[in-house]
Design a protein that fits this description.
This protein is an all-alpha fold. It has one domain. Helix content is 78%, strand content 0%. The longest helix is centred in the middle third of the chain and has 27 residues. The chain is elongated, with a radius of gyration of 18 Å. It starts with a helix and ends with a helix. 9% of the residues are buried. This is Pro-sigmaK processing inhibitor BofA family protein. InterPro entries: BofA. Keywords: Membrane, Transmembrane, Transmembrane helix.
Length: 89
């Protein structure tokens, strides 16, 4: 696709949301979910940074970030157990 078309579509969507005000609950729920996934990815990054001392690494992708972001600490624990015991090096 043409880059100008993509940028125009994004800009148009932003302008539309600014004009409407974005009072729709699905947009709000999608925004909260996306924010949780981003926080999960940052948490995985920090876990990998600390875990590098002990040769511990969990890949950062959409699935693992979603698990950590939506489940919180139990999600981190579940991924750590899966990495250590179910998928040993």
């Amino acid at each position: 696709m043409d880059h100008l078309l993509i940028i125009g579509g994004i800009a148009g969507g932003i302008i539309l949301l600014l004009l409407i005000g974005g009072p729709f609950k699905p947009f709000r729920a999608a925004g909260k979910t996306l924010m949780k996934i981003v926080v999960g990815a940052l948490g995985l990054f920090l876990l990998n940074t600390v875990g590098a001392q002990w040769n511990f690494h969990i890949p950062i992708n959409v699935i693992t970030a979603s698990i950590c972001g939506l489940l919180g600490l139990p999600g981190f624990g579940a991924l750590a157990v899966i990495q250590l015991y179910i998928l040993p090096h």
